[in-house]
Amino acid sequence: MTNKEKYQNFCKLEKNIPIFNQSWWLDAVCNHDWEVVLIENNGEIIAAMPYFVIKKLGFDIISMPKLTQNMGPYIKYPDNQKYHKKLSYEKEVMTKLINKLPAFDSYSKNFNYSITNLLPFHWKGFKQSTRYTYILDDMVELESVIDNFSSECRNNIEKARRKVKIIEDDNLGEFYKIVKMSFDRQNINIPYSYNFLKMIDNASTNNNSRKILFAIDQNNDEVHAAIYLIWDGKSVYLLASGGNPSLRNSGAKYLLVLKAITFAIDNGLIFDFEGSMIENVEKFNRSFGARQQPYSNITKINSHVLGIKKILKEL
Predict the structure, then answer these.
(1) Is the pLDDT of residue 311 over 60?
(2) Bridge partner list, 107
(3) Sign of the C-alpha dihedral, residues 260, 202, 206, 62?
(4) Are 110 and 296 in contact (CB under 8 A)?
(5) What is the pLDDT at residue 281?
(6) Model-level pTM greater than 0.90?
(7) Which residues of 183-208 are buried (b: 16+ CB within 10 A; e: fewer)?
């Protein structure tokens, strides 16, 4: 049995693996072209780290697939570990995972924010930088969550309630069109194709892990904005969103996110905005009273040529 086959079976049994590390998600975003390193103990997987290799200009580059927030190691811990034992355990299994990686010229991956002990990667010559997502993880009653919204956020929600209604719909083509409008407004090429999104949608639908919400005009059913949600056993993620540039002032996206947060509360899940280092997006996420959550980008360059290029780019 190959490592991938072992890992696919592991994913079916291990319920705590984040969606972005699930084998079915990797099949979709990597078009089945991914691999995984495993650490086993008496035939049982205790740690795994999937990876995705792009071959570009003769270089082997381990990188992140599109629309994938994180793709770091997953560790299965023994029960009732003391803290010092946990750190020792992490050092052991992470070092083994690193040593099993194939030769590469460049490595860049985002790790789930649950991975906080990065010393084993540091000791192996990897570099760490911090990125941010925003999460709502203390949600019992919707009213108490709304109390923490900014006044601007609440005002936009009330404005949207007078103009739009929220519906759930499977119209992926309409969703992609709305997302593309947002990128076109900024004169940016949309970074993924409709066919790529379709692969994600098929896989997420088959695994009962997605919902598409539209905010449509109460008078003429014109789409103001739309969001795409995915979820695992812990979190609901705001995977993608878009809006009609000519209807940006309706507040529709605020109301859509409120519906998404309500869905998370109803299912006992955390809501993850999936973060952004873009200032305007960060402001939007923060307005919902969400907590800033750092996570790590881990990099290493083994190629002297790529290292020189990186240095020149930073000058």
Answers:
(1) no
(2) 62, 300
(3) negative
(4) yes
(5) 85
(6) yes
(7) eeeeeeebebeeebbebbbebbeebe
DSSP SS3 for 51? strand
Q: Is the pLDDT of residue 64 over 80?
A: yes
Cα angle 122, 123, 124 (rounded to 5 degrees) comes to 90
SS3 299: strand
Coil, strand or helix at 104: coil
Q: How far apart are CA 90 and CA 88, in angstroms?
A: 5
The tens digit of pLDDT for each residue in 71-119 reads: 999 999 999 999 999 999 999 999 999 999 999 999 999 999 999 999 9
Long-range contacts, stretch 304-309, CB < 8 angstroms, 24+ apart? 305/59, 306/59, 306/105, 306/106
In order of start, what are the domains of the chain with their CATH numbers? 3-130+296-314 (3.40.630.30), 149-288 (3.40.630.30)
| Tens digit of each residue's pLDDT (9 = 90 or more) over 222-251 | 999 999 999 999 999 999 999 999 999 999
SS3 313: helix
> Token digits for 139?
């949600």
> In sequence order, what DSSP letters do the residues of 107-137 get, joined into one string?
EEEEPPTT----HHHHTTT-EEEEEEEEEE-
